[in-house]
Specification:
It is built from 14 helices and 11 strands. The protein has 372 residues and is an alpha+beta fold.
Length: 372
C-alpha cells in the first residue's frame, strides 16, 4: 500500500502459517430457490453470527462466498511463535502461545455452531424456516465446519478495478474438503490432524479421532477428528433469555465495544501466557450442556473400536462400535426420549460392511476419502 492508500497488485505474496476455517450452509441451492429475494436476509443473519463469534475469538474474516465463509487464524512468525523453512519444516518457539491460539480457532467454530442454533430458534429466523419446511417438511438448518493448518501465500489478487486479500494454498482447499466431508460422517465439524497436534493437551481430550484418510490434494494420510456436541440439548428457556432480538442499535454498539475491549485484553494476556484458553471449555455453559450425551464410557468403547479398525481387526471394531452406539442411545433416550445415530460409527460400519468386516490384504491403516 502506498502513501495514497492504494494497493499495488503487482508485488509478490508472502508465505504465512495459519489455521484455515471453512464454513458452508448446506442445501443452499434449495434454500435460495424457495426464499428467492429473502435469501439475502437469511444468509446475512447467519454470516453475522459467524463473523461476530469468530472475530471475538481472534479469527480474520477473509471471504464471503454466498453459502461459504473462509476464516483465518494467522500465526505470526514475527512474534517468534512459529516458523517454516524452505523445506516446509515447521518450528514452534512459543508452544503455550501457539496452543492458546489454536484453541481459540476451535472454540470459535464450536461457539458458532451453538449460536447458529440459537438463531434458528428466534421468531424472526423461524419465519424463514417455516417457509422452507412447507416445501421440505424434513428441512433443518445445518452448517458444515472444517479446520486445517498449514502454509499459504498471502497477497493481493485482482487489479486496480477490484482487489482482494487472498490466501492461495492447497491447505485452504483441504479446509474446504474437510467441511464437505462432514456430510459423509453425519457431523458438523471436522478437524485435521495438523490442527489437533497444535491444540493444548487439555483441549485435545474433547476431540474424538474418527478416521484416517487420504484426500485429494494431500499425499499423506490425514487423521480426522471431531468435537461432539448436540445443539438440541440447549434449553429453550436459555435461548429466550439470551435472545437479543429486542436489542436496539445503541445497545448493539455498546455491546460491540465491550466485546472488542475484552478481545484486546484477552489477547494481551495470551501473549504474556497469563491465560489458558482451554479453561473456557469448563466455563461455557452451552458446551457443558451439549456434551451431556457423550459419556466417557461411550468414548472408551469408540476409541477401542477405532483402534481395531485402523489395525485391521474389523470384526472386533464392529463389536466395539455397536457397544458404543448402545451406550449413546441409552444416554440420549434418558435426556431426549429418542435415539441418536452416531455419524462416524455409521460411516465406518458401512465401509467395513462392503468388505464383509474383513480388512483387505493391502490395508495400511487408512482409506481414500471417495468424495471431495
Amino acid at each position: 500500500m502506498n502513501q495514497n492508500g492504494n494497493v499495488n497488485p503487482l508485488i509478490p505474496g508472502k508465505k504465512i502459517l495459519a489455521i484455515f476455517g471453512f464454513v458452508s450452509i448446506r442445501n443452499f441451492p434449495q434454500i435460495t430457490e424457495i426464499l428467492e429475494e429473502n435469501i439475502m436476509l437469511f444468509t446475512n443473519q447467519i454470516a453475522e453470527i459467524i463473523h461476530i463469534v469468530c472475530d471475538s475469538y481472534h479469527g480474520i474474516i477473509n471471504k464471503n462466498l454466498g453459502d461459504c465463509f473462509l476464516i483465518i487464524w494467522k500465526l505470526k512468525d514475527q512474534d517468534n511463535l512459529i516458523q517454516i523453512n524452505k523445506q516446509e519444516e515447521i518450528s514452534i518457539f512459543n508452544i503455550s502461545h501457539c496452543q492458546n491460539y489454536t484453541d481459540l480457532a476451535l472454540i470459535g467454530f464450536l461457539k458458532s455452531q451453538s449460536n447458529i442454533y440459537k438463531l434458528s430458534m428466534t421468531k424472526k429466523f423461524k419465519n424463514s424456516l417455516i417457509k422452507i419446511q412447507k416445501t421440505n417438511p424434513n428441512f433443518s438448518l445445518k452448517l458444515g465446519f472444517g479446520l486445517h493448518f498449514g502454509w499459504a501465500i498471502e497477497g493481493a489478487i485482482g487489479s486496480n478495478f477490484k482487489i482482494d486479500a487472498s490466501y492461495l494454498s492447497p491447505n485452504v482447499n483441504l479446509a474446504s474438503r474437510l467441511e464437505n466431508a462432514t456430510k459423509q460422517y453425519g457431523i458438523q465439524l471436522l478437524v485435521s490432524g495438523a490442527v489437533y497436534r497444535l491444540l493444548s493437551n487439555q483441549t485435545k481430550q474433547y476431540l474424538r479421532h474418527i478416521d484416517r484418510v487420504t484426500v485429494k490434494g494431500s499425499e499423506q494420510p490425514m487423521d480426522l477428528y471431531t468435537c461432539d456436541m448436540d445443539c438440541n440439548l440447549i434449553e429453550i428457556q436459555q435461548l429466550i433469555k439470551q435472545s437479543n432480538e429486542n436489542q436496539n442499535e445503541p445497545n448493539k454498539k455498546i455491546l460491540k465495544y465491550v466485546q472488542r475491549m475484552k478481545k484486546q485484553t484477552r489477547l494481551k494476556k495470551i501473549i504474556k501466557n497469563q491465560i489458558q484458553v482451554h479453561n473456557l471449555f469448563l466455563k461455557d455453559n452451552d458446551f457443558l450442556i451439549m456434551r451431556q450425551t457423550y459419556t466417557q464410557e461411550f468414548f472408551n468403547y469408540f476409541h477401542q473400536g477405532i483402534n481395531n479398525y485402523l489395525d485391521g481387526y474389523w470384526k472386533d471394531a464392529k463389536i466395539k462400535f455397536e457397544e458404543a452406539q448402545l451406550i449413546l442411545n441409552k444416554e440420549y433416550e434418558y435426556i431426549q426420549k429418542d435415539k441418536l445415530i452416531d455419524g462416524p460409527i455409521n460411516t465406518l460400519d458401512k465401509y467395513m460392511k462392503n468388505f464383509n468386516y474383513q480388512s483387505p490384504d493391502n490395508w495400511k491403516g487408512y482409506r481414500e476419502l471417495s468424495e471431495k
